[in-house]
Amino acid sequence: MKLTKKQVADFFKSERVQVILLIIIATAVRLFQLSKETLWLDEAYTIKVVFWKSLPSIIANVHHEAINHPPLFFIIYNVWGKIFGISEFALISLSIISGILFVFLMYLIVKELFNYRGVAFMSALLASFSLFHFHFSREAVQYSFFPMMILLSIYTFLLFLKSKPEKRITTWAIYIITTAALFYTHYYAFMIILVQNLVFFIFWKKNSKLIKYWIVMQLILLLLISPELSYMYTNAVRHSHGLSKTTVFIEYAGSFGYQIKDVFIKNTGELGLVLNAFFKQSVASIVGIILSGIIALLILGGIVLSWMRSKKENVFNIVFLLLLVFVPILITSISPEVYRAKGFVFTALIYSVFLVLGIRHLFKSKVVRIIVVGIILLIGIINIAHSIGNNYFFGEQEDWEGAVDFLKQPEQKAELILVEVRYTLAPFFYYYNNSILEDFFNGNFPLNSSKSDVITVNFSSETDYSKEYYRGNRLIPDLKTLNESLERTNDFWLVSSIHTKFAYPNNDIVNFIEKDFEKISKTEFGSVDVIRYKRK
Prior knowledge:
The chain is mainly α. The chain is 62% helix and 6% strand. Residues 462-473 have low confidence and may be disordered.
């Protein structure tokens, strides 16, 4: 039986088909050339969680080790790793699934807000090709799971606001559970909860029948998250020099402007850099600025025109989406040290929605809309392809796999391998010999033994561990022990990385080595350097 054009059109207009298509696209994008991914420092240290034996040990370790995050993601990751193992795909797959669910939840949220499937579909489609979200959907860290949990909380919040009396208890129970889970995923969650409260009370007349439920819900939520609040405060103080504040208005405005710009660039991509593959550098920079400016104008048009033309009920949607971006940045601008761009991956929702609304309001022709959306999708594809091809996401990645493969080649054999910064042994050992990872994480691997072909630099007892190395604290190397280790060799490899400049800004290790050894060669693998030394 031959299908008519109308039947084909009706088939693709079906919501079920559109959602399935979105999921297929989001999955395909996140699996695209996945074999090129290589674990870096944070991902390798997340593997440590898999080896923890019990729930109490996971919670204690997450709070008191360098992780300093709430425990939920790591509890899930522990179970995930025990079931599926620690292969690269197994480690990344939780983030891939979270990224796909993000796209699906985004569709549901936008449809719930604007009651228009077309805007929901196009917004979710653009988010599927967001470099910002794509990158963290392929990392074995919590920054794909966390934005997915944000959207889950937002969706249950919207369901509660629109709930009928007979389903109200069910919806507020689901909201409390999902939002408590969100807080136990990342401390930035408190800003999302704050936004939900702000928007609820800004539109209190609209929500007047729900106020008593809401107050009870927030009290229950506060009770559920109270055990974690002290850890949140301690973590904030630790990362911000005692919650140092920006007290001068000009500095505050500068911090706010920088963070808004940073979030925008993370969502758009550094187009000038990406376009170097097609144009001369000077031309690429100009084209990149023009394209970024056009996208910014489309988003601004989406905000302004949606506000001017919106029906009364849509004002809530616009205010809610804007507050989701501006309130967190207003807070992190007070103490800029707590700002982390990766905590704003969820802004792919707001970015894509207002971009689609801008296209919809500014261009009346469907053909023109399709062309503009196609261009933006093409930019997303080019961003992603460039990122994969150059092992790049807003800075060079650490290609530990490439470095280890190089060192394992027979012609590169040396008597010793010295990994300069101790904590970078995690990604190094993952590719060098992951069977010893558990012993390494438990401190049972002899890192300076005469029997080991891999050594590192211990930290001196003078090092102050109460401060973080990347906040200005200098790690003091134990050069005496290092000297004893190097006395047994005339030929070794030094494995350095981007972390060296943070740990040893005065170049302590290299300066010490080069008293007795000379550099023979240097090979770069992203921001990991492999340097050959021979005794003078």
